Amino acid sequence: MDIKKVVLAYSGGLDTSIIVQWLLETYNCEVICFAADVGQEEELDGLEQKAINTGASKCYIEDLREEFVRDYIFPAIKANAIYEDRYLLGTSLARPVIAKKQIEIALKEGADAVCHGATGKGNDQVRFEMAFKALAPEMKIVAPWRIWELNSRSLLFDYAEKRNIPLPITKDKPYSMDRNILHISYEGGILEDPYREPDENMFLLTKSPEKAPDKPVYLDIDFSEGEPVALNGEKLGPVDLMIKLNRMAGENGVGRIDIVENRLVGIKSRGVYETPAGTVLITAHRDLESITLDRDTQHLKDRLANEYATLVYNGLWFSRKREALDALISSTQKNVTGTVRMKLYKGNCIVVGRKSAVTLYEPDIATFDASELYDQKDATGFLNIFGLPLKVEALLRKKQNRK
């Protein structure tokens, strides 16, 4: 493959630190690094200079936090998207916003290729490359992990040592991690044994339940048309809201999960995740829908939530199907406005109240006392009609003397 200029999705971690030099040696091309600020905080410190020192001609560092929260995280919360009913899609949602900006930079710079550091065993290669194909189908894609002979972590360390490439981790680091404003994921190393409990000192965003405060914290979350807009009455922008809620929920041990998930490529993978703000928001949002959506719309949304989560997990953000789902979901959110009261206590995230000016909850119907709107005698005819198929089948089975 003939490449003159390539834009690399750069994190400064083990893989991409080495990839800069590998691209120079393999293709004798100009390498431009691009790092997206999606909320990884101190991990970005000194990154630009490190990229230049490693051989890149320049390094873009773009603040994508606002776009990430507003256009990716909040739509997923509106959809109640949870992959396999447990994973809140922290990495899955970050990759398309990163890939989108990477393509923009590649086109601006006149690059003929883009590159990522995802392995050939994981999901991220799919997420990056599906985005590349959708946004710039003519762009060449370089995936070093599917090309080079450096097929183990130890070989990567040896490669870096021979070329004096500084690395942020050592051979002894027991896992790899990926951080953004929605979550931190931990994989690999000691976590590849699915029976081994993670070390407590691994966690960065959440306290353990044992060390969380002994008194619960109550929190009111205001939503407007499905989007969170305020905490305890304080109106906040998307980024500030996520930062503050991450801190509050993490302090109370909320948001840890330890799962084995099914990757798109067919491999089962153990992942440990911290998603404090996301856990609270999706729990509160789904609860607010319980009083603001009619039954059939809610049941449809519940079915589509899994469809939406699987689509995002599989890297198809830039697809007609996702756009269509978002259009439908947005139409359901017009009345998802109100307040949910949450109780955070030692790892538990509990809904304890909800209210809305456009609620569909009518106490006069719900009450066990006498009601003007609902006559319990009317249920007799309904039950006779609703149960007719079951009754007819049972009668015929008996008449025909069969089980």
Task: Describe the protein in words.
This protein has 13 helices and 14 strands. The chain is of the alpha/beta class. The protein has 3 domains: 5-65 and 92-173, HUPs (Rossmann fold, 3-Layer(aba) Sandwich); 178-293 and 335-355, Argininosuccinate synthetase, chain A, domain 2 (Alpha-Beta Complex); 365-399, no CATH class. Strands 3-2-1-4-5 form a 5-stranded parallel beta sheet, sandwiched between helices. Strand 9 (227-231) and strand 10 form a beta hairpin. The model has no long low-confidence stretch (mean pLDDT 94).
Report a brief summary of the structure.
By secondary structure, this protein is of the alpha/beta class. The chain has helices at 14-27, 47-54, 65-78, 90-109, 124-135, 153-162, 238-251, 276-292, 295-313, 320-332, 363-366, 379-386, 388-399, and strands at residues 5-9, 30-37, 58-63, 113-115, 140-142, 176-179, 184-187, 217-224, 227-231, 234-235, 256-262, 268-274, 338-345, 348-355.
